[in-house]
Design goal:
Blueprint (H helix, E strand, L loop, with lengths): L13 E6 L3 H9 L5 E4 L2 E12 L2 E12 L5 E14 L2 E9 L2 H23 L5 H21 L5 H9 L7 H18 L6 H13 L1
Antiparallel strand pairs: 1-6, 2-3, 3-4, 4-5, 5-6
Helix pairs in contact: 2-3
């Protein structure tokens, strides 16, 4: 049998995190990301969170808004997923992150414009050789960085994971959930057969 072909890259922007928090509380922690703001070198990220109930789970969407220097915040990533309780002690937060289609279209359009305009400017004599080579090299480098980094883990995913982890004040709630889970498992155990009910049958066999 031919070996199954492995993918060339890992989807690091897919995630599945586990937390002992109830689903509603985990959602509250995700919604609190709307008040957070992450600052990097010459850039800032903020978050907008939407949610809704879907059958036995909670669907959520987080829009990552990025701004550079003095530019307005623009949509750069979309995190979508769902929250569901596996049992009384475990809640799963699963989903993925993607680049908006509009951003991809704009990026591809700029690449196409550069790919067409740069040779035309060079062969028409309006662009020196050094600048032509610089633009070509910069474009190739940008494409390589985009292709290789497209599926790298984004900082917003780590921030999401940190938000749903239990805090010091959650210990009592977690202990209560664990006790409820133990009580539920105890109630689900089959009852042991009564020895008193079996005694009349044994007496009848002896008399017979």
């Amino acid at each position: 049998m031919p070996k199954k072909r492995r993918p060339n890259f890992k989807h690091r922007n897919r995630f599945c995190f586990e937390t002992p928090l109830p689903a509603d509380l985990a959602l509250e922690r995700l919604q609190a990301m709307s008040t957070l703001e992450a600052s990097y070198v010459k850039s800032t990220e903020s978050y907008r969170v939407w949610s809704g109930h879907l059958r036995d789970s909670i669907h959520f969407e987080i829009r990552v808004m990025s701004s550079y220097l003095w530019t307005p915040a623009m949509l750069s990533r979309i995190i979508s997923g769902h929250i569901r309780e596996v049992d009384a002690t475990r809640t799963l937060v699963e989903g993925d992150m993607r680049i908006p289609h509009l951003n991809l279209v704009i990026g591809i359009s700029f690449v196409v414009i550069f790919a067409i305009a740069t040779p035309l400017l060079y062969f028409s004599g309006h662009l020196p050789l050094e600048e032509f080579l610089f633009v070509v090299g910069l474009t190739i480098f940008g494409l390589i960085v985009f292709i290789r980094g497209k599926n790298d883990s984004h900082p917003a995913i780590y921030r999401l994971n940190a938000c749903i982890q239990p805090q010091a004040g959650d210990q009592d709630l977690i202990a209560l959930r664990q006790q409820q889970r133990r009580d539920q498992l105890t109630n689900e155990l089959p009852a042991a057969p009564s020895t008193e009910a079996a005694q009349p049958a044994e007496d009848a066999q002896e008399r017979g």
